[in-house]
Amino acid sequence: MIEKTAETKGSVKVADFLSAGGDRLKLEVQGGTAGLSRLIGEAAINRPGLGLAGFLKYFPEQRIQVIGLAEHAYLDSLSAEERAKRTEAMFATKVPCVVFTRNKRIHPEIVALADKYRVALLRTPLITKHFVNAATIIMENLRAPRQKVQGTMVEIMGIGVMIEGSNGVGKSDTALALVQRGHSLVSDDITALRRDTSGALIASPVKVTQYHMEIRGLGIIHVPSLFGVASVREEKKLDLVVTLCPRGKEPEFADSRSKSNTKTYLGVDVPQVIVTVEPGRDIANVVETAALNMKLLKLGHDAEKELDERLMALLSDGRNAFE
């Protein structure tokens, strides 16, 4: 299996932030379009009250600056000359962009300064706290470590399962059988992973192939058109990796009878199950059972541990465990 190198995005272009969150945040560009290529260095959002008041020591200039109701009222209380002076001092620190919330009117001198200092000037009708919360989540997602891997991702009764293996081993056929049983497709063949702030791996499709599958001998199919909108998911937490291997080609390190194998992505260990593929075996049924077993493990029920404890108890009593 070929894996692409993981990338960690330390900074995000203003244009990328606008592209990712423009619709959700209802953002419109009001000036400083030359500054859309500037980099946002931190996910946190700043309300520059102290900065506008003239105190710029420790000013977080790498963050998105938000002018909310209080900041706008303060700017309104100043003369045009003083307002331009206070705002220019903030723009001179090379902030990435400035957002006015609540659709507040942007003073013409501020628009002129945004163009002069090449600072993107944005406006949204959202109230400030809602914008800050949503924008922070978008920024954290954009800055999250990412990796693309070869594998087909499905959701089985709330468990995110990635089916991997060599070309032609039956990943897509297995996923198709699972979709036919009422489960959901996340991605086919290539899966994009990102690690969120909690350390969980979130799997999503590559946009160009989203909702589609390639089935050998059949070609490309559009999954929601055939099986309904409930047959697909936008993204899902990765809980289990199922590796399909032809008979005799299982990894040397793996024990196909054990759940102790793990696969590591972006520094996160994910439980792995090795499934041997051979004629007549219902692989979709095995994968479904593996997902259900993982669900039981999450609920605290470990069948392997329970059986082991039962056998040890019988042996300790001097009885034949197989009588």
Number of domains: 2
Strand count = 19
Give the CATH class of the largest domain: Alpha Beta
CATH homologous superfamily (4th level) name of the largest domain:
P-loop containing nucleotide triphosphate hydrolases
> How many DSSP helices?
10
By secondary-structure content and strand pairing, the structural class works out as alpha/beta
CATH architecture designation of the largest domain: 3-Layer(aba) Sandwich
For the termini, the CA-CA separation is 45 Å
Strands across the major sheet, in which order? 11-9-10-17-19-18
The residue ranges in which pLDDT falls below 50 over 5 or more consecutive positions are 1-9
Biggest sheet layout: 6 strands, mixed
Helix content: 25-40%
- Helix-strand sequence: EHEEEHEHHEHEHEEEHEEEEEHEEEEHH
Shape descriptor = elongated
Strand content range: 25-35%
- The CATH topology of the largest domain comes to Rossmann fold
